[in-house]
Amino acid sequence: MKTKAKAKGLTVLVIMVAMCALVAPVAAQSTPFMIYGYVSYENGTACNNPTVNITNLNTNGEWSADTDAGYNYYQLILANGTDVNESEVLQFSVTDGSQSKVFNHTVTSGEVNNGGIFNFNITLVALTPGQQVWYLTADTKPDDAPTANDSLNHSKDNLLHKGENTGTGTWFYLPHDDVAWFYADTGAECGLSFGVHSWTAYIRTEKIDGAEVGRNLTVEICKLDKTTGNITVLAGNTTSLNATTDTEHLWIITCEDNETTTQDFSTGDWLAVRLSWDCSTDSLRIHYKSDGSSDSYIKSPSSDPGYPVPELPTLILFSSGLIILVGYVLLKRRNTSSD
Predict the structure, then answer these.
(1) 31-124, what's its fold?
(2) What whole-number distance in Å separates Cα of residue 302 and Cα of residue 285?
(3) Which of 49, 136, 183, 197 supports an S-S bond with 145, CB 3.0-4.6 Å?
(4) 187 in helix, strand or coil?
(5) What is the Cα–Cα distance from 64 to 92, expressed in whole angstroms?
(6) CATH level 3 topology of 133-313
(7) Residue 210 CB burial class (10 angstroms; 0-12, 13-18, ≥19)
(8) Residues 215, 224, 228, CA angle at the centre, nearest 5°?
């Protein structure tokens, strides 16, 4: 009798152990963490078949999102709790082959609990041939850049980085009695000209409400003398918003050509941008970077010669013109000698 009871007890124990062995892998299995959204250009058109790479900066894990040639949708499925955890930083690197965007996103507890980052849409800059883009950054200006000589208080003397946003800062406050300066990576490497065309500024700020409604944000595109830092305003404009906004606001400001000057640069002259705000009771919070959306940046006109040095087609055109001119002069001299 005792033998049967003992055997029965062993059988139950074996079954329980087997059940635990089956349940353990299921309990240990990670739940999915899904990241998806759409990639578009700032003008609203779709960026089909983008390349979206995501890196976990805490673990160095790297993944490429799934995309399709005919769509601007991207998707990546990771393991929740294994590949990604709360408070870890994911770096997104997105490109269409010519334009690129790199930014960071910190994973929240809500995203972990919900199982992913949903409808995480990304905006790329749209450029026409010849245009270049410079981003406002939190990095300090280049050491060899002249400091703008405008006798005003500078809240920022930062880098205006060509082609890609850099730096770790996300925003700064601009009071009414300060100006913020942003300087290109380098000065002009030879004489060049932007022509007589307008520039476009895209400035991402906090939502506009209260005393900020109706106040003026000014953007000026400037040339700084390489030695003195003296300023020539090449283009600029002032814009106000006469209604409140519920979310961060993107100011799109067309900086019209200053007809009293030329947009000509001598070797060493420096491209820079000045921002000012006129609300005496409320400073304006300006964002360097905005999660997935448009950052703060400046677009040059399509007549951009390729600052800081003219691109090859511009050099070829200039050289061709110079050769023709020299040939004309020599021919005229020969004809004069013959007479």
Answers:
(1) Protocatechuate 3,4-Dioxygenase, subunit A (2.60.130)
(2) 30
(3) 183
(4) coil
(5) 10
(6) Jelly Rolls (2.60.120)
(7) exposed
(8) 120
- pLDDT at position 291 is 65
Is the pLDDT at 223 greater than 70, yes or no? Answer: yes
Name beta bridge partners: 223. Answer: 232, 271
Where, residue-wise, is CATH 2.60.130.10 in the chain? 31-124
Helix (H, G, I), strand (E, B) or coil at 39: strand
Hey, what amino acid is at 133?
A: V
> Given this model, what pLDDT does residue 312 score?
47
Convert the pLDDT of each residue in 125-161 to its tens digit.
888 889 999 999 999 999 999 999 999 999 999 999 9
pLDDT in tens, 11-45: 444 444 444 444 444 444 679 999 999 999 988 89
Task: Return d(Cα 178, Cα 245) in angstroms, integer.
Answer: 24
Q: Residues 68-78, buried b or exposed e (16+ Cβ, 10 A)?
A: eeeebbbebbb
Provide the token pair at 210. Answer: 């209260």
Percentage above 90 pLDDT, the chain: 71
